[in-house]
Fold:
Amino acid sequence: MILLSAIPDAPWLPPLGRAEVYLAEHGDRAPEPVSIVRLLVASPHGAIFCVPRSGGRPGLDLPAAIVADDEPLSAALNRLLHTVFGTTAPIRALGHIRNTVPLDSTYEWPTPIAHFTVHQAMTTLEPVLDGT
Structure:
């Protein structure tokens, strides 16, 4: 993994939280624990497929699935692929965000470290869910 960016005191995290953006290299595996998996679906012309953000937040985001406790990452990814395409498809790891927060923080994800991965769909399949 290649560290692309580090954001100390990231404004979306609890106080003293740090966000790091990593780019995956060939063969890299996702770090543990993974809290959310996201899927990048790009058209041949470079357009990115997005869906409305969850939780009533405004804007668009990549399709995502929460990884359940004790759920293998592969199962969460297959669930996400079925949601997006109605079937599985080949993917590749693009990278992840690592959020680090103090242990005593009020935070909805694992502490002190939570990971949010991004995978790219390697298919010409069209998404079957509503999105842009």
About this structure: The longest helix spans residues 73-85. Residues 97 and 131 are 23 Å apart (CA to CA).
